[in-house]
């Protein structure tokens, strides 16, 4: 039901010129026979974890690995069309996105391992503003960002979403804010980790689905509110750890 709902919603918005924040060219999917060996070691490890988790949730069948590799390779090729060339020694500014694509993997699970359906959804989704915040590889070396922003290698999620979380945390949860200040960590570091991993390993699968759906339906600012609500939920644990 969730898959159908987000599909219809995103399809409707992507057909509206006023809702399309990013322009995307046409892209035809590559050969379906993509093997795991074509991916980086980080991606291969991510594929294994995703397939294992998907089978545990009874969402994926035995042949799911090839389907996920197909999605990841095509996403990389599709997004490459909208990247600029930057000469830099920073690992995060090399041609390939340095991490694993947790958002595309989450959509693959929501679509029960249907690779064509997943890829079609992601292509339509990439036209919307919310894709910049939910799908981190979306803006990797992106020509949609000012060149100076790209060269710094800092993702907009860090200086937009995570920055606003810190601003709100001061007002909403001053004790948590102080605890972070005393620890030498910043809340934005934790938020970036949560968001990059699409909350995998932090929330249950149903809650991850809620996070994705809420941000798609209500807007990317809900990413900030969800982080704040998590800090509120964890407040007593954070304060107890600070005292210890």
TrEMBL record:
Pfam families: BROMI_C (PF23440). InterPro entries: BROMI_C, Rab-GAP_TBC_sf. Residues 1-243 form the BROMI C-terminal Rab TBC-like domain. This is BROMI protein. It comes from Urocynchramus pylzowi.
